Amino acid sequence: MSDVSGSWTRTRNLSSSFGEPQSPQKDEQQKLAVPFCGGIRGGLRPGKKITIMGVVNADPDSFDISLTCGCGDVALDMCVRFEDREILRNACVSDSWGKEERSIPYFPFIAEQPFRVEIHCEHPRFRVFVDGHQLFDFYHRVTPVAAIDTIQISGSLTITKLN
Per its database record, what is this protein's job (predicted)? Predict the structure, then answer.
């Protein structure tokens, strides 16, 4: 697996604010503000890994992590729902949503606790790990995989690191 550190390009900051110049640490926090939308330089390919580190909010409702082709097709939409303790996955190709997947061996997210999500892009699928434990596989519905060039994150979480 290759490390994709430093391969993010900002496409837009949905929660940007204007004002006084900020320290590098504050600037980094602003760049990772939720909702977040950023580019994946060069798109995805088998062997590439995306790591999202964050903390679940105190009274969480849900959060979403989506891998998209710009503003078009959605290759993976992962919706974490706390009330039902489920993680829904789906893809949208040519404006048509496919069959939703929801089976998981356990629910790994806890209010006010940090987490680490790794999305490994493999030849036939995404393999998703939370805190080092495999949670699910999601087989590619969008091709070519290299067209997947954007990540969007929203909901009841704080992002602490993304690479």
Answer: Does not bind lactose, and may not bind carbohydrates.
